[in-house]
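Q&A log
Question type: sequence-to-structure
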Amino acid sequence: MGMAAPMLNGTDASRVRDASRLMAADLDVARTESIVHADDPRRVVLDADGLGYQITFGDGSVPITDTITKNPYVVRFGSGRAGQLAGTRIVDHNLDVDRELAFGVYGETDRTTDASITLDLNGYRVTVTVDAGSGDVLLSQVSRP
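Response status: OK
Response body:
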């Protein structure tokens, strides 16, 4: 007889997982853009209110243009392509006070240690980790602290 696995709240748990996957894909966009545009590597800047982030040019102040939508590359949980992710918040990170993660010309980050960003939706959390040396992204399992 098998052992039953505990069930997570399908809606909140899956939505915070979806938010982490969206962020992982966007981090990969920033990394790839940095390799392609070695003269102006990209940054991911977290919003101060924890409700989103943007991919910017190297100075961190102006969002790049999303090649698909032709709009500024700004993500707000609960709006636009992140519309179904309302209620998601960035609740923790180990970035500096500027809340920026910069990528280099080889896809590496500007950090000496891995970056981590934790997303939360109604108590369900996922941590997004970015390897300092490679820029590769790893997602944790959904948890409830």
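Response note: The chain is about 20% helix and 25% strand.
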